[in-house]
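Ticket #4471: structure output looks truncated?

Reporter: J.K.
Steps to reproduce: submitted the chain below (460 residues) through the standard prediction queue, then opened the result file.
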Amino acid sequence: MDQNLENEKEFTDRAYEMDSTLVDNVLSFIESQNKRGLIALLNEYHAADIADLFEQINPNSRSALIELWGKEMDGEVFAEMDEGLSGDLIEEMPDEVVSSVLKDLETDDVVDLVEDLEKDEQSRIIEALDAVDQIAVLNSLKYPEGTAGRLMARELVMAPTHWNVGQTIDNLRKSKNLPAQFYDVVVVDPMSKPIGKVTLSTLLRARRSIPLIELVDDEFRTIPVTQSQEDVAYAFNQYNMVSAPVVDDENRLVGVITMDDAMEVLGDEADEDIKLLGGVGDESLTDTIFVTVRQRFPWLGFNLLTSILASIVIAQFSSTIEAIVALAVLMPIVASMGGNAGTQTLTVAVRALATKDLTSANAWRVIRREAIVGLLNGLIFAIIIGLIGYYWYGFPMLGAVLAMAMILNLLMAGLAGILVPLLLDKFNLDPALGSSALVTTVTDIVGFFAFLGLAAAILL
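Returned output as attached by the reporter:
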C-alpha cells in the first residue's frame, strides 16, 4: 500500500511533465534523418508538448528538426510556443514551409506570431498566406498592440435575425468556412450590428421552428475593438464568458474573442508581473546569453545605485559603528526584515491592482490595514529581536534600540509596499515595474537610518 501511495505521489508531482524519452527519440531520428519515424512519433503528441520539446533542445537541433519535419509541420505548435522562440524559428524557415505551416492557423494566432517581427519579416510571412488571410491579418495589425483588435479572430459564426433554428443549423452544415472551434452563433441585424448570441447548447436543444431571436442570451456583452487586452481578460474572468463578439466604433461586428485567448492573456500578464517584480524583463529560457545579460543589466544597475544610497546612510554613522561594533553585526537584520515585509505587501498589492480588487474606493482602507499589519508584526518581532540582542551582547539598551528600529522599519515596509505600486498605477505606469527595487531601497534606508540614528541618540 505504501508503495502505491509513493507511486501515486510521484505521478502527481510529475503530472503532464514531458516524456523523458521524447527528446532522445527525436534527436535520434534527426541524426538518422528518419523523417517517417519522426512524423509518426510527433503525431502522438499534443502541439503544446511539441512546443515544450523545442524549448528543451539546443538551437542547432531546433533548426535540424524544422528542416526534417518540413511542410508536414503542425502550425499549432507555433501558436503554443514562446513568442520570442517562434519568431526566431519562423525567420529561418523557407517561404513554402511557412505557407504550409500557417495555412491552418486562425488569424489571431497568425497575428500573435508576426506582430513582434521586423517589418521586412512581417511582409514575408504575410505574403506566404492566401489572399483572404492576408487581408484579415493586415486589418488586425492596424489596431494598436495589446488591444482586442489584435487579440480577436476574424473567423466567426453569425446569423441574421429572421432565421429560425432549423435554417441556422442547415446553413452551418452547408458552410465550408466554419472556424475550427466555436461556441456561439452571433445574431446580427441588417447593418451587421450584433444584437445577441445563441450558445450551441441552446441551439441544439431547441425545435427547428423556433425563431433564433427568441433564444438570444440575456447576458450578452460586446468588446470594443480598441479595448485593452488586460480589460478583455478581466471581463472574461469576471463574468465567466466563453466567447464575446468584438465591435468597431460604429458597433459593427468585426471579430470574436474566445476563452482560450483571454486565458492566455491572463497567463501572460501574471507572467509579466512576476518577471517585472524580479527585474528580469521579458526573458525566457530560450534567450541567448547576450540577450539575457542585456535584459538584466539595467535592473542590476538600478539596484547598484540604490545600494549606494543605503551605503551613504551608513557612512553618516561611521563613528557610531566604530564606537559600538555590535551595530555592524545587527543592522542587516533590521534591513532584511523590512525588505521581506515590504515584498510581501508589494506582491499582494500588485496582484490586487492587476485583478482590479484594489481601487480608489478601497485604497485607504487597504493602506490602513497594511500599516496596522506592519505595526503589529513590528511589535512581535521587536520583542523577539530585542531579547536576542540583549542576551547576545548583555546590553539592555542595545536590545531596546534594535526593537524600536524593527517597529519603525516594518511599519514603513507595509506603507511602502502598498503606496509605491499605487503611485505607479496613478501615473499610468505598470505597478510591477521597478516596485521591488524601490520598496527595498526605502526599507534599507529607513532600516539603517532608524537603527543607527537611535543608537547614536541613545547609546552614545
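Triage note (M.O.): checked the attachment and the full C-alpha cell line is present. The chain is about 65% helix and 5% strand.
Status: closed, working as intended.
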